[in-house]
Structure prediction request, 161 residues.
Amino acid sequence: MIRSSMFLLALLLVLPVSADDEYFSGPDGLRKGGTLYQNLPAPPMAGEPRHSGREIRNYPEQPPVIPHSIRGYQVDRRHNRCLECHSRSAAPNVGAPMISVTHFVDRDGQTRAAVVPSRYFCTQCHVPQTDAKPLVESDFRSIDEVIQGQSARRATGGGRP
Prediction:
């Protein structure tokens, strides 16, 4: 069994693979028009953040977006640049909002003195607000739009959705 597996592996390594091979010349599934052997340019980055202040959240518990550029920010296991302004001690001095108290609660519901590891990497949940166009169409409605729609249906006798 092992001998035949080794033979197949050796055979695969010595067989020439050409870019004309149907499998390798097909789309790679990640980019429009791209194949495994093509190096296409990356799409342009979205513009810098809009300078409109804090955004209104679309639903309860939505992580707020970041209203400034974070390009070049170091966030790794040893250093978190975000905490230079948003920590409990720094926020009042620089005028930045302090990170939410939820960032100090661990998986077991215990409140800790420092930001817990599961909330340490900010861009897991928070993204910079930009002028980026949506990648896919969406019929998403904010919670206020949903509530207003329900209120309007009730006022006209439409009942529940």
